[in-house]
Amino acid sequence: MKPTYEPGDVQVKRFDLISPDLKARAVPLDQLAGFDVWEDITKPTLYACFYFVDSVGLLDKFPVLGQEEVNVEFQTPGMPRSVLYKFKSFEVANVIRSPNDKSVTFTLKCVSVEHFYNAAATQQSYKGVVSDIVPQIVSKHLHSKKQVIIDPTRGLQTITFPTLSPIQAIDMCRQRAVSVKYPTSSYVFYENQSGFVFKTVEGLIESGVASIGSRVFNADQNSTSDKYSDRLAYRTILSYENIARVDVNEMLDKGAYGGVVKTFDLFTKQFTHTEQQTSDMFHKITTTDKGAQFPSSANFIEKFGRHNGRHQHLVPKTTLEPDNFIDSAVAMRHSFSVLLNNNTTRVLIHGDSGLKVGDVVTLNLPAATGLTGRTEKQPLVSGNYLITRLRHIINISTKSKHQISFDAVKVGFTK
């Protein structure tokens, strides 16, 4: 028997509004017009907006003060499990009363509860490897019991946080982290539906490529089927835009091709000077597609890309302490971060409750058909992409609908 649901269908299985201070609880799903949930690889916590059309006096009688706990659970039909997000509200916005005072619309803005603990100062010294320090900060200073998914780091470090917030302290750790495995040491710290993540972009790519599964999306503009049972319709790209595609001026200006690392030994007062050419080491980087190449020709690199003098990184260190290896990673990490933003595609798809920031998907994007009318893939931009920003867009009316807008990056080019 064929399923009765269609692409974009969603089941909102739970919606709770809780006021711990007032000891009040409501389940106002019939007053909820929709909600958006944002995940972002550059943001440490989640963000959400809930949109209400209140005809029962919820705003004034509950009352909604912008201090509530909000739990929402939803599931794409046919998916093996639902996803549960837990938030704490911080603002009631856009309050508009109807002309006849029969209803009021408003927006409840929310973040992860850990964000509220970020106002306190860390003021503590840690000694060890960064991958051990970060979970301690999350647990002790952000008061979180969520799991922290980690890529291990190397190099013993003593880090003292001078009146930094917990999230600032974690970001300081991120900048000092050196990977055991991945040469770019491109660590990011963010939250998605699975918990907190402290991993390298290369690590996300490697694990994501291995688990793409059915997450293969096609921009099939000629498809007329709109049934969930048709897998092509379910994984159809509704719209897309290649919002960044190789700006060589930016790559040159910001140091994508390499840089100079200067170290200063605080004990011996000696400088060392090392040039690192990222384009020469690109083959060692874990890329989204097998065989991906640096996005500049060998001739262009030789002529323009070897002038790295102004992209300098100064790393203080001392022979009295164990090596922290920061000087070996700083130039590659900087160059890699520039490369990441040079092939970005923004996509709109039907909802998938299991899709999250940090996943890798395959995007098959069509080339211009010309006079032939044949649909062929664009080889330079089709392929595997890492999702860096994601927005769940859920509209609740007579039948709930779910779409996802996401930004994704592709590392290097394939021919």
Task: Report on the architecture of this protein.
The chain is of the alpha+beta class. Among the domains are: 11-116, Thrombin, subunit H (Beta Barrel); 248-340. It has eight helices and 21 strands. The protein has helices at residues 58-61, 130-140, 166-176, 201-210, 231-234, 248-254, 298-305, 326-340, and strands spanning 11-19, 24-26, 32-40, 47-54, 69-75, 83-97, 104-111, 125-128, 148-150, 157-160, 187-192, 195-200, 216-218, 237-245, 258-265, 271-277, 312-317, 343-350, 360-364, 383-395, 401-409. Strands 1, 2, 3, 4, 5, 6, 7, 13, 14, 18, 19, 20 and 21 form a 13-stranded mixed β-sheet that branches. Strands 9-12-11 form a three-stranded mixed β-sheet. Helix 2 (130-140) runs antiparallel to helix 3. The chain is globular, with a radius of gyration of 24 Å. The two termini are 43 Å apart. Mean pLDDT is 89; it is low at 223-229.
Describe how the helices and strands are arranged.
Elements (H helix, E strand, L loop, with lengths): L10 E9 L4 E3 L5 E9 L6 E8 L3 H4 L7 E7 L7 E15 L6 E8 L13 E4 L1 H11 L7 E3 L6 E4 L5 H11 L10 E6 L2 E6 H10 L5 E3 L12 H4 L2 E9 L2 H7 L3 E8 L5 E7 L20 H8 L6 E6 L8 H15 L2 E8 L9 E5 L18 E13 L5 E9 L6
Helix pairs in contact: 2-3
